[in-house]
Amino acid sequence: KDAAASKGRGDVDYDIATEVYVSIAETSEQATSQATRTLSVLTEGFADDATPEAIAKAGLVGSPDEISEKLARYVEGGVTHYEMKFVYQSIDHLSEQLALFQERVIPNFR
Known about the structure:
Layout: H1 2-6, E1 17-24, H2 28-42, H3 52-58, E2 60-62, H4 64-76, E3 81-86, H5 91-104
Parallel strand pairs: 1-2, 1-3
């Protein structure tokens, strides 16, 4: 907002949003393992220096505690909206991740 004000745009309200890939599991190792195959294919749509590890680091891949910490950093940086793209192998796997996210992450931001 300070940068906008310095350019004469301080009176403009705007939202900051980001798109992130999500893989949540009880442990970071499980979340990473479950997302590796998909994240390795995603590099085709990113910059030349994108790696699965870089995409995972920028995204929300990990345990509920790790994802809560990452989300808190985004919030501190001013992000107010997210497009979360869950990485899943089946509808049951997606449902499990959504339930874990709802139970263990969302309460940290109410």
